[in-house]
Amino acid sequence: MSAVRAGVLVTGDEVLEGSTVDRNGPWLAQRLLDLGFEVAGIAICGDRLEDIISELDYFAARGCALVVTSGGLGPTDDDRTVEAVARFCQRPLSLDSDLEQKIAERLRAAAKRWRRFDETALQRSNRKQALVPQGATTLDPVGTAPGLVVSVAETGRSSPVVVVLPGPPRELKPLFERALETPPLRALLTRTRPLSRRTLRFFGIPESQLAAAVRELADAIDGYQQLRIGSYVHRGELDLVIRYPTSAEGAAEALAEALAERFPRQLFSRDGRTLDELVAEALAGRSVATAESCTGGLVGARLTARPGSSAYFRGAIVAYDNAVKVRELGVSEATLAAHGAVSQEVAEAMAQGVARALAAELAVSVTGIAGPEGGTPEKPVGTVWIGGWDGAGACAARLWLPGDRAEVRERATTAALHLLLALARGEEPPF
Amino acid sequence: MSAVRAGVLVTGDEVLEGSTVDRNGPWLAQRLLDLGFEVAGIAICGDRLEDIISELDYFAARGCALVVTSGGLGPTDDDRTVEAVARFCQRPLSLDSDLEQKIAERLRAAAKRWRRFDETALQRSNRKQALVPQGATTLDPVGTAPGLVVSVAETGRSSPVVVVLPGPPRELKPLFERALETPPLRALLTRTRPLSRRTLRFFGIPESQLAAAVRELADAIDGYQQLRIGSYVHRGELDLVIRYPTSAEGAAEALAEALAERFPRQLFSRDGRTLDELVAEALAGRSVATAESCTGGLVGARLTARPGSSAYFRGAIVAYDNAVKVRELGVSEATLAAHGAVSQEVAEAMAQGVARALAAELAVSVTGIAGPEGGTPEKPVGTVWIGGWDGAGACAARLWLPGDRAEVRERATTAALHLLLALARGEEPPF
């Protein structure tokens, strides 16, 4: 069975120029990989008609059997993806009256949110979004734009099937799944071989060292050559992603085992669960609070990003100002004066203080120097103390975090969650 | 003067598969646009050698005079961008001993952060990263990977100059600016016509309405046809970006004037300054605190994302649990029982309460239903009350925000900053 190739095309001046950060391209690429496609690439182009057609031609030239597009389906005239796909597939555009009706209903519902509303602009948008290439399969809109599955009109010409999806992720994702149920996609999926994916998550080792360990282990693992391995750093963590065909499941498992033995403390997730999921699980039936200085609320924000976090998250005290550390967290003026705000003593007092103030069993605290100003030779930018309180005692650890202000804050947040995980499980902190 | 085209190539399985969100591609595209290039597109491909070369060929085929690559310069064997560029430019790789020395020094410095460190892996990385195409201009590393400027070896063949940059943004950005100073780039820049960019920022009107207003105004503006206009929604705001050649500066100004007249309350920034910048400016010499429920700390995190925010940000109380609203913010149990946590009364009490607790002159609060659970017919998911306190009195406004949990939280955060801006300026709230 030869590889079936697919490509992703993201359109829009706003994405090209960085006003909007695209997450659809990588999301689609990952779904396509899981489904067994070989992904030729992601292309991002502006809203020029000829550029969109050119990108479609290039995917076709690379032998792609499928191209998924994102964006360019909006109501304004600069959104031209449907027109480009119609031309590429040699199918004229025509008005779908049923669809026009459905979009109208959705637009009217959305219009209620706004005080000022222009009815003429509304109707114009409506009509434009209901123009579809003849013979295309329409996927009912989740927002106002429909999805489309379009095959080339001319029979005998080898050309990719094009799935056209709107840019907003909450519309794109369900419409992509619906597209998979259409006959052209079902036909393609009979030819692909899905790969399984296994993610091992590490905290506290450099990427080069993990890579060296994987190389050393390779020879001893039967079937290692069938594994496709990538390692990715994000939010201060290191993920090892192993993709494998069913026949190499044993090899994937053997590698995971060997790495768990080599890095027992650093490998914190062997089944793909994220730190956030593990923390949420460990906190079930408990209560937690955070005391934050340099992270400014990021630890609380990350904990509450999960639905259901109100079951264990009491709240946070962001004590940016030292007076707040004293008044709200009960840190003593003497401790602050003797050790400075970025110190073991203050980190511990903050954690204990917030647990008491918010009546939480567990607490973590962060106090550090995120930069760019504020560093000293003894406490350079990136110096962060993470504190913890488990109801019985306090602990704290000092980290030197690399990166700019945003990176230091994000890594400190990740480190605080790791400490919280250890506290909730009654384990040793990982640093 | 005909347009000089440029392309951006982002390499890496981790970007293609979504493990890392690429922000380099759009950043580079925007810089290239400002410098006067026409951007053909951004391509993202995996770490396969043939795919990278194929993408370079496609940019060449589209007439690009410049391609900037991001990523694939790491120490591990799966990073193959330099090798691909060397082949594309027909220049063999050779070891740059000076560069090897520089990288070694940087690696040794970085190594100190880690407890366990493998010296052999270090040396191997070092050598790989010092291999450069013969005749390339080397840009000294900011991290451990150097940047490169490579022209095609064969004279007479029309082929793009390739600028090779490492993936980490804090390395890529300064190296890009250095690349502009090299002779091949200076030569290209004599042929481009830089465009100016003007960004108008709106809050509280739908995109379709702004688009309709721009269309209506177009005829009355002399030189309107020279403007290139895009509108972008992000974080619950709407940006109108106008790019123009120097000759059309008057037209850009006239459009900005006309829109300011039409949307006096919604147009909050006419010079590109962001909401965050305006808030920081308005808070100079003041003090502020936040009380947050559904945003979980996001407002505090956003305020403290800016260096120097300690001058005005006292702190935040994240009162996720109602008991915390009562105990730390002084919201009365009776008010909570009578109106519910998501109500005008509670929003106002939270703002006033945090101002008092943290001794701040100004305060904003957020209490709402971010979903997916917790909605009712009277208070559906997306119902958010934003409260404010200015030292003299409290106010609050109810918003119905669209989107999923993350979007509702982000839009609520933006709305809270808009209210804070109005409070700091002594103006009417914008909603």
Automatic annotation (TrEMBL), chains A, B:
Signal peptide: none annotated. Gene3D superfamilies: 3.30.70.2860, CinA-like, MoaB/Mog-like domain. It holds the Pfam family MoCF_biosynth. CDD domains: cinA. Residues 7-187 form the MoaB/Mog domain. HAMAP family: CinA_B. NCBIfam families: cinA_nterm (TIGR00200), PncC_domain (TIGR00199), PRK00549.1 (NF001813). Belongs to the CinA family. This is CinA-like protein. It comes from Thermoleophilum album.
